[in-house]
Amino acid sequence: MESLKILALSGSLRKASYNTAAINALKALAPSYVEIVVGGIGDLPLFNPDRENEVIPSLEKLKNTLGESSGLILATPEYAHGISGPLKNALNWLVSGVEFPHKPIMLINTSPRASHAQESLKEILITMSGRIVERANVSVPLLNSELDSEGIAKNEEIANELRAGLSEFCSEIETQKLNARVN
Ligand SMILES: Cc1cc2nc3c(=O)[nH]c(=O)nc-3n(C[C@H](O)[C@H](O)[C@H](O)COP(=O)(O)O)c2cc1C
């Protein structure tokens, strides 16, 4: 099986974030041919179109990793019915780049009640020409669970949900790659 590199971003900067924990759990649960790289968005400056031609190391790193990745996994908290500011900031920086468009995307929602942020995130991603792989999206009830990444990976039900979503995501990426080779 050809190896797959996938970038994962959490929209939360909180140390004990459920979104970050879910991503780290998925990284631990991933099969050996899948490398999940957990990226950072906390060091990006506030988006300013006047700075788009500047070399900003944290942005270069994000763009390079995204460019090398076959897919993108996103997990965002809902704040006041919107997506997290840090994630929106990161996405705004990626709008005019070549790395994002047509990238397959898997969404992890760690709070099923947080439907506004998920819908808003989908709208943003579609506007940016991302390709959301709906059958890979996972919604797992982590809010108030007190689970960290190890606890999530050990929780059979939640771990199975995450694994199943990742498996769908990877098979969609593989299919796309095959189709691209044939066409
Ligand atoms: C300022 C603030 C606003 C929030 N607004 C919402 C909201 O509108 N809807 C919701 O479901 N949860 C809301 N929450 C709860 C967070 O989404 C929840 O705590 C989530 O776990 C945070 O993600 P994290 O654990 O990855 O940091 C809010 C939390 C904070 C701190």
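^ flavin mononucleotide complex. The pocket of flavin mononucleotide is lined by residues 12, 14, 17-19, 77-81, 111, 113-114, 143 (CB under 6 Å). The helical segments are 18-29, 57-68, 85-94, 115-127, 149-154, 156-182.
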